[in-house]
Amino acid sequence: MKITVLLFASLRDAAGTNRVELETPSDSTPRQIADLLAERYSKLRPHLKTIAYAIDGEFVAADLKLIAAKELALLPPVSGG
Amino acid sequence: MIQLTHQTITPAQLLAAVEDDGSGGTVLFLGCVRDHSQGQKVVALEYEAYEPMAVRQMESIAAEACKRWPVQRLAIAHRLGYMKVGEISVAIAVSCAHRAEAFEACRFAIDTLKHTVPIWKKEYRPDGSDWVEGCEAHPIATKSETQQKKEAVPV
Known about the structure:
The complex is a heterodimer. Chain A is built from two helices and five strands. Chain A has helices spanning 9-15, 30-40; strands at residues 2-7, 19-23, 52-55, 58-60, 71-75. By secondary structure, chain B is α+β, with helices and mostly antiparallel strands. In chain B, α2 runs antiparallel to α3 (99-116). The longest helix of chain B has 18 residues, at 51-68. The interface between A and B is medium-sized, with 19 and 32 residues.
């Protein structure tokens, strides 16, 4: 499964990019994909404990098996307002 | 009216958006850039969002507020980009028949926004800048979910 991972704010700064294309097994979970990404961008690792996940703009659980998802967003703790 | 904008937020625009002949009370909340944070001087803030999701989350907040209280109209605007001290970063206006519901719905909307909307701010201080890590993001707890949780607790 080809998936685009979107990175924001502190995660983007840590990785040095705001989007990464990845090829993953089709039943990967968001947490597995984030782990895979942290192997490539080691500075992401310390952030992984506090991130939330969204698929195509909706929150999803870290252990949801993804089938044919196109876009996974990794969301650091939010600070709007 | 639900809006992400790079322009200056004008409170009058939000008040106009919630005008309603059936409303006897309108509450306006403005969040502004403060000159300090945790004992340190702040000179500016920069906001960014996962925009399509942020808009959807703000729409969900509005929908949930309308379920919980008899809201006539509700408007949320959040600004993105670089803002100096004193500028408005977020504005929420709520009109209801009576003031109590308007205060409660507005409070709910801003409190929920801070937990569920994918927006991030970077603080600029005289000695550098950092992303502010606020609340771990999570979806809105809808009223029925909250009730179910309460009901699930054994007495």
